Amino acid sequence: VQLQASGGGLVQAGGSLRLSCAAVGDNLRNYHMGWFHQAPGEEREFIAAYSRNGSGGTKYYADSAKGRFTISRDLAKAETYLQMNSLEPEDTAIYYCGASRAALSWIGRAGGYAYWGRGTQVTVSS
User: Fold this and answer.
1) What residues form DSSP beta bridges with 99?
2) CB of 101 closer than 8 Å to CB of 30
3) For residues 3 and 49, is the Cβ–Cβ distance under 8 A?
4) Distance, CA of 122 to CA of 102 (rounded, Å)
């Protein structure tokens, strides 16, 4: 499966952005779909994921994302979304979408994702 993320940009603190991840080449329902971000010099960090249908189609969030970010998907369009509200300067990073066929226990770990999009830059100004 090939992934392409879009929707990043520059926004003021408190603002919102909606990221999209388009998947091509396989059925989205067969994959856990995750969003991660990576700031310069840091590791890729989990934000949110949507488990594949066979694992319940359940949403998972990092503590930092709960209450501010929402993951969703449109199987017909083969797209996954990350709605980000109340953005903070600390959210500034490159955001990546990933697809995984690993066990559910890997859903929050970057090492469990075999497929990645190119990333989209999100910059939040104070």
Assistant:
1) 33, 115
2) yes
3) no
4) 28
Calculate the CA dihedral of residues 117, 57, 26, 17 and round it to 10 degrees.
Answer: -30
Select from 82, 94, 73, 83 the least CA-distant residue to 31: 73
All residues at 6 or more sequence positions from 7 whose CB lies less than 8 Å from its CB, including other chains: 17, 18, 19, 20, 120
Which residue from 126, 102, 124, 105 is spatially nearest to 114, judged by alpha carbons? 102
How many residues in total does the chain contain?
126
Per-residue pLDDT reduced to its tens digit, 96-126: 999 999 999 999 999 999 999 999 999 999 9
Among the listed residues 86, 79, 88, 87, the one whose alpha carbon sits nearest the alpha carbon of residue 35: 79
Q: Is 91 helix (H, G, I), strand (E, B) or coil?
A: helix
Mean pLDDT of the chain: 96
Q: In what order do the strands lie in the sheet with 69-74?
A: 2-6, 17-24, 79-84, 69-74
Q: In the numeric block, which tokens belong to residue 17?
A: 């952005």
